[in-house]
Amino acid sequence: MTVNAQRTIASSAASRKRRWGPRMWPYLFSLPFVLAYAAFQLYPVVYSFVLSLHDWNGIGAKTYIGFKNYVQLWTNDPLFLKSLWNTLIMMAMFIPVTMILGLLLAYWTFHLVRGKNLIQTINVLPYITTPVAIGFIFSYIFDWQVGLLNLVLVKFGWLKEGFYWLQDPWTSRAVIALMVVWRNLGYFMIIYMAGMTVIPQDVYEAAKVDGSTGLHTFRRITMPLLRNITVFLVVTSVIGGLQLFDEPKLLYGGWSGSAQVGGPDNTALTVIWKFVDESFISNTRFGYASAIAYSLFVLIVIFSMLSYRLTAPKEDKR
């Protein structure tokens, strides 16, 4: 090999080293996060799926059973199907109400001249309130013996005796939906108000010149221009609704006088509550609980796609 060839090879290697050196730094800086994510997020997710293919109580040896947990879950577990039905019913109760009230409240607050900051603060306070406090408040309000609602209704003669709000199948679901609405209404209001701030005021001025009234402007201008925010809120509400757990668990977790798993006749049992019960409360069937978790993951993907397809503008649907 000639001297010139050796110099060319050495120069090429040095050039590659200089080019590769700066490119290494982003990978090196992101390596701690990637390793932490793989150890504490990715590995548990993969291991949970592997565990769903086994029968395991957390102590003894694992027994591989294939997809029998999934088959039993969807064909021979009426309690799971009931928990899914309960979750969908409560979602149908609180998602439309929260969306409509959040939009109307945001529109009204946005056009206030005075007191706007006070209204925003009052409505956001429930969102930052701890779930335990929310469960205590609503358990106290709807308790059949000492509940504030029954005391008021009996005092004014609208009821002869206290009503079992938390023991009736439909009213128990309605109370849980009311808890979700009360907690998330301020968040929806803030998101909608953020969208209203970026709408050009020239559009409203042009509509006013053309003789558009307040209601017509709201329906024809404000709502269409907030379509993307509505899509975002619908999709995230569906995802959060399928993971509903805090409200029903705290409502029937002992504050109302007697701890009940799933509420009266399991009419308040949600999918996540079923998962927690199978994992840590009534049973320790970790493989079966993992099957519930992955079934819920598939349901979340399906319902999220459906909600996006139904609410997104036509030009965004691909």
Automatic annotation (TrEMBL):
Transmembrane domains' residue ranges: 25-46, 88-110, 122-142, 174-194, 225-245, 286-308
Subcellular location per the Swiss-Prot or TrEMBL entry: Cell membrane
SUPFAM superfamilies: MetI-like (SSF161098)
Sorted UniProt keywords: Cell membrane, Membrane, Transmembrane, Transmembrane helix, Transport
Primary residence: membrane
Name assigned to this protein: Carbohydrate ABC transporter permease
Source species, domain of life: Bacteria
Record-linked Pfam families: BPD_transp_1
